Amino acid sequence: MSSSSTIPECLPLHPGASTYFHGLHTSDTTKYVDLCDKQFNETLDQIINSAAPNTEELIKSLTKTYAALNTERLTAKRLAGKLNTVKQEYKMKSDQCEQISLSNWDLYRTGEMTAPNLLKLYDDAKDSRINNTQTAEDGGVTTAYLLKIFPYIWENPTCVLPDLTKSGNAKKTRAADDDEIHIEGGNIELICPITCKPYERPLISKKCGHVFDHEGIVNYLRGHGSRDCPQGGCGKVVSMRDFVPDKIMSLRCKIDKIQKIKANKEDNENLDTL
């Protein structure tokens, strides 16, 4: 720094400015991203309900757009993490500096005494490492997850889902994020084992992964705080707080219903033609 400078380039953080310093943060875009996420789910429902001939193409387009949203989500997290790290480093270095006074003003002005430069620290800092895995707050399934498995369920609502991990060689649409997903499969039934009727509001146990309709499990647990899982051979003890909505089963049932209606309509049209 030139000795002719009238003011120092950088000064330690003044105690009176601490409130403003701690208030320095990135814009919180969470509510906007959550709103977009909700709209994606609504759009997914609309696409399914329309049962249009180009449904798979629409889903691919939706998946690509959702991938862009997740990129922005991750960028915002990295930016916030980087700023927090830089602020901590700046505060630590600033606390080691001698507070500005009339006696040391010229020393700071000439560069004989220095203070950290917040902007330079930020420019030199590396981006924070953020886990790219999106998780649902309720412990359920994310929109990205549903978009990945959609092509398989659309083709066959009762299918056993394949290995969708990065090492898997099954076909898939462009991933909405880079997290690895592996779904264990079995014989998929769209009938509740308690009510013996098609699922209306499927719930999945976070303890054992067994699925029951809301009506069935509520009746089964009525009068009991907890009880053995009604699935034969399970052995887990469950309560209502262990259950969350099963979005995958809901997707299966919705697609199955729509495809049956579509098939019946086509059969009727063929009969009319005959």
What ranges have pLDDT less than 50 throughout 5 or more consecutive residues?
Answer: 167-183
Q: Quote the CATH topology of the largest domain.
A: Herpes Virus-1
Mean pLDDT: 84
- Strand % is 5-15%
The appropriate CATH architecture of the largest domain is 2-Layer Sandwich
Protein name: SP-RING-type domain-containing protein
Organism: Naumovozyma dairenensis (strain ATCC 10597 / BCRC 20456 / CBS 421 / NBRC 0211 / NRRL Y-12639) (Saccharomyces dairenensis)
Main location: nucleus
Pfam families: MMS21_N, zf-Nse
Would you write up a description of this structure?
By secondary structure, the chain is mostly helical. It folds into two domains: 15-127, Four Helix Bundle (Hemerythrin (Met), subunit A), CATH 1.20.120.1010; 143-272, Herpes Virus-1 (2-Layer Sandwich). It is 47% helix and 5% strand. It is built from eight helices and five strands, in the order ααααααββαβββα. The strands form two sheets. The chain has a three-stranded antiparallel β-sheet with strand order 2-1-5. Helix 2 runs antiparallel to helix 3 (55-95), helix 3 packs antiparallel against helix 6 and helix 6 packs parallel to helix 8. The longest helix is centred in the first third of the chain and has 41 residues, at 55-95. The protein is elongated and about 95 Å long. It starts with 17 loop residues before the first helix and ends with a helix.
Helices and strands, with pairings:
Blueprint: H1 18-22, H2 30-50, H3 55-95, H4 105-110, H5 118-124, H6 143-155, E1 202-205, E2 211-213, H7 214-221, E3 227-228, E4 237-238, E5 243-245, H8 247-273
Antiparallel strand pairs: 1-2, 1-5, 3-4
Helix pairs in contact: 2-3, 3-6, 6-8
